[in-house]
Prior knowledge:
The protein is 80% helix and 0% strand. The protein is mainly alpha-helical and 123 residues long. Helix 1 packs across helix 6. The longest helix is centred in the first third of the chain and has 26 residues, at 5-30. The mean pLDDT is 87.
Amino acid sequence: MPRTPEENERIRQSAKEKIQKAAMALFIRQGYHATSISDVAKEAGISKGLLYNYYKGKEELLATMVETRIRELVEVMESAKSNRKPDEQHRYIIEGAIDNVYQNPEVFRFICICKHSRKQIWT
């Protein structure tokens, strides 16, 4: 029986998450410039061709990962609007950021590495 469009989308999203997780681990461990697409594919347990099916290259992969983090931040800030007082909004954002660091320390390390090496990455 052929897969449903929903099943195909779930498989696609799962593969992309696996690729991004592998890339994040390698960028943290080796650095962005020292990590090749082949390294990411190997770490993700997929072929390089499949990786290129989802991303044009390392730059697009990194940009997607950064955009995801930005979207998450915007979501937290939008949720903070439900608090009427500015001090409550700030507290909500700060507590959310601290909780995120505890729950996802690799994301925090990734953000720090991107910030530290942004001139090298984006030039």
